[in-house]
Design goal:
Blueprint (H helix, E strand, L loop, with lengths): L18 H22 L9 H24 L3 H45 L1
């Protein structure tokens, strides 16, 4: 015999908060802006900005994973398109940071090695 009083009725899950989408977009825009600022702030190569750009690239990769995870939680088309925009911003940031660091890493490493050698010969 089954008692009907013990059965719990499952309530539908409440829809996720829209503020999470806005927070994701703000973080993606701040990351892209900081990355662009670090790459474009001067005409000279800034070897000391390679490490922060690597951190920003890692943050962009993390944002990509957040966007993909949130796409499963937001089934409506409008939210998914919004998340796709955030994902594209994060992907462009990751790609640009990687290219910048990859391009100038060898130059900065050789410059740093020359500076060490000249300091040792003095």
């Amino acid at each position: 015999m089954q008692s009907t009083g013990n059965k719990e009725q499952k309530k539908p899950a409440p829809p996720p908060k829209r503020s999470r989408l806005l927070i994701t977009a703000v973080i993606a825009l701040i990351t892209a802006g900081a990355s662009a600022w670090m790459m474009l702030r001067s005409a000279a190569i800034q070897c000391n900005s390679l490490a922060p750009l690597t951190v920003l690239a890692t943050l962009a990769a993390f944002l990509i994973s957040i966007c993909l995870r949130q796409m499963g939680r937001y089934p409506d088309r409008r939210s998914r398109l919004f998340l796709l925009g955030c994902l594209l911003i994060a992907a462009a940031t990751l790609f640009a940071d990687f290219r910048f660091v990859r391009r100038y890493r060898d130059f900065c490493d050789s410059l740093q090695q020359e500076m060490r050698q000249s300091a040792l010969t003095r």
